[in-house]
Amino acid sequence: MSELDRNARFIEERIDESDIQRDARQHALELGLRPVSAATGAHLAFLAAASGARTIIEVGTGVGVTSLWLRRGAPTATLTAIDDEPEHLALAKRSLLSQGARPATLRMIPGRPADLLPRMTEAGYDLVVLGDDLAHVAAHLQHALRLVRPGGTIVVLNALNGGRVSDPARRDPITSGIRALLREFELQPDLALSVLPGDGGLLQITKRA
Fold this sequence. Notes:
Blueprint: H1 3-14, H2 19-30, H3 38-50, E1 55-59, H4 65-73, E2 78-83, H5 86-98, E3 106-110, H6 113-116, E4 125-130, H7 137-147, E5 148-157, H8 173-186, E6 191-196, E7 202-207
Parallel strand pairs: 1-2, 1-4, 2-3, 4-5
Antiparallel strand pairs: 5-7, 6-7
Helix pairs in contact: 3-4
């Protein structure tokens, strides 16, 4: 086992998911969804807490595995959750309420992100989390850059496309498009960018205040 694998296992084993989180993860797997790992979830909770996030928007909520972690980090934040499957959003809302979220802090909006994101408030969010719909990641990122306030952060899940981005032999349109996006964002002086390798890759972009 490599050092990276040992470290990953050590971290995962130390993270305590609640029964509600474990149930949501099981639902996600049964539906064929790809929930974030506990380590990535804990990191998202840390980002939400460290940034003092009061308004969060999550695109591609699924059944709420990521949402539950975000709420652990920012329990009083208003969460706007977007997913094109109303049944998934209903499960996510049920889990969030069971975890203690107040109904007034939850905005569960079913529909296509391409239709909904243009209607969201400009510079209205402290944290934007984009699920791994990589076929539309470029468009979602452009909206996210408009939606996040100065000093706020955007997170893209599975941003290295499951390791394909780091493989020079992979030249499919999605993978090549992600490489181009990374090059573009690295050159923008008003953005601070970081990529973490775990869980398919985690892209973090902060808009400088």
